[in-house]
Amino acid sequence: MPLSEHEQRMLEQIESALYAEDPKFASSVKRRRLGRSSGRRRLQAAAVFVVGLVLLVVGPLVGLSVAGLPVVSLIGFLVMFGAGLLALWGGGRSGPENSAPAEAPARPAGKRKFTERMEERFNRRFDQE
Questions:
Q1: Confidence band, pLDDT 50/70/90 cuts, at residue 6
Q2: Where are its TM segments located (predicted)?
Q3: Which of 20, 26, 81, 91 has the fewest CB atoms within 10 Å, i.e. is most exposed?
Q4: Model pTM?
Q5: DSSP class of residue 34?
Q6: Is 77 exposed, middle or buried, given 0-12, 13-18 or 19+ CB atoms closer than 10 A?
Q7: CA 120, CA 98: separation in Å to the nearest integer?
Q8: Considering its fold, how many domains does the chain have in total?
Q9: Is 66 helix (H, G, I), strand (E, B) or coil?
Q10: Which domain holds residue 99?
């Protein structure tokens, strides 16, 4: 289910506050995120996957087996598995999706930090009860 515009704005505010509070932590979390590979990396992973699929299918035709295991098919499966990991993790850390975001916009002197506002809201909820 996609996020509403309000939820997307809130998420962006939280993310920018995180980058403002602790940019080192935020960049390390962004680097570890799955599913953020580039289109070129996905294309490479798809090509490697097809090669693994061909090896998997051709394995029984070749007939090379050790202890009853078709070696070529096993290698094909491992190549396909590696291609899946390559597509998920994306490989290198270069590119626009893996680079550190721009600094958070400067806030006016009257505005407080995001965490301070959230603490105040939290405290008000408990004071009301």
A1: confident
A2: 43-62, 68-89
A3: 81
A4: 0.45
A5: S
A6: middle
A7: 34
A8: 1
A9: strand
A10: 5-128
Which DSSP string do the residues of 69-116 spell out, in sequence order?
A: EEHHHHHHHHHHHHHHHHHHH-SSS-STTTSPPPPPPPPPTTPPPHHH
Q: Write out the two tokens for 1.
A: 């289910």
With tokens 């009853």, the residue in question is 68
CA nearest to 37, candidates 105, 104, 83: 83
95-118 pLDDT, tens digit per residue, is 444 444 444 455 554 567 888 888
Both structure tokens of 128: 């009301």
- Asked if the model's pLDDT at residue 35 lies above 80, the reply is no
Residue 81 has pLDDT above 90, yes or no: yes
